From TrEMBL:
Keywords recorded for this protein, A-Z: DNA-binding, Phosphoprotein, Transcription, Transcription regulation
Every HTH luxR-type domain range: 149-214
The keyword DNA-binding appears for this protein: yes
InterPro entries with a match to the protein in the record: CheY-like_superfamily, NreC/VraR/RcsB-like_REC, Sig_transdc_resp-reg_C-effctor, Sig_transdc_resp-reg_receiver, Tscrpt_reg_LuxR_C, WalR-like
Gene3D superfamilies, per database record: 3.40.50.2300
Protein name: Response regulator
Boundaries of every Response regulatory domain copy: 3-121
Pfam families the UniProt entry points to: GerE, Response_reg
Species the sequence originates in: Streptacidiphilus cavernicola
TM regions (residue ranges): none
PTM-bearing positions, type 4-aspartylphosphate: D54
Length: 221
């Protein structure tokens, strides 16, 4: 059973998500948080597998709440799935750095949201394609754009850097395998080696590494 904590400052939204989660046989809602501070507290006491986290909340926003949850020894196994809108995409990159494992838009169909919870709970990362595109645009406007690759990146092979670039562009494992004309298992092996060599927790952190290394660049104009 996957245990889910719902954090949103709007009671109607929280209640709707909780009802949706409880309709799935393999998911159960273990609590609701109306503020970022409450989300941090409940994450510590309930130890959910996944937190559905809104970004704009009182006391602490979703970014700081995510950072505190991910940095606490007692909640290191908790995964954060951010629910965002087009109007607040500028916060998404900061939330990735804080440790979020996934992002979905709030108008995501119910079935897709439930599937996303399962993906994140399994240790994968999930980025909505529209959010990934906006992330790339936002990153290029940040002061860190163009920063040289970290020393860890020098330990990767040319093929691994190619895979990292495709991850940064938001491609799935299957799409990466198709693009490189390799088997799905080979693509997964490359990704596993990237996680190990770069010390990344999940796919979301590999996206950050691709941006940081300058492997992902926007189209001009």
């Amino acid at each position: 059973m996957i245990r889910v904590l719902v954090a949103d400052d709007q009671a109607l939204v929280r209640g709707s998500f909780r009802i949706l989660v409880d309709t799935a046989a393999d998911l159960t809602a273990v609590g609701e948080a109306a503020t970022g501070a409450e989300a941090v507290r409940l994450a510590g006491s309930e130890r959910p597998d996944v937190v559905l986290m809104d970004i704009r909340m009182p006391d602490l926003d979703g970014i700081e709440a995510t950072r505190r949850i991910m940095s606490s020894p007692g909640t290191t196994g908790v995964r954060i799935l951010i629910l965002t809108t087009f109007g607040i995409d500028e916060y998404v990159f900061a939330a990735l750095r804080a440790g979020a494992s996934g992002f979905l838009l709030k108008d995501t169909p119910p079935g897709d949201l439930l599937a996303a919870i399962r993906v994140v709970a399994a240790g994968e990362a999930l980025l909505a394609p529209a959010v990934t595109r906006r992330l790339i645009e936002e990153f290029t406007r940040s002061p860190e754009a163009g920063r040289p690759p970290s020393e860890a990146l020098h330990e990767t092979t040319e093929r691994e850097r190619e895979v990292l670039t495709l991850i940064g562009l938001g491609l799935s494992n299957t799409e990466i395998a198709d693009r490189l004309h390799v088997s799905l298992s080979t693509a997964k092996t490359h990704i596993g080696r990237l996680l190990m060599k770069l010390g990344a927790r999940d796919r979301a952190q590999l996206v950050i590494a691709a941006y940081d290394a300058g492997l992902v660049r926007p189209r001009s104009g």
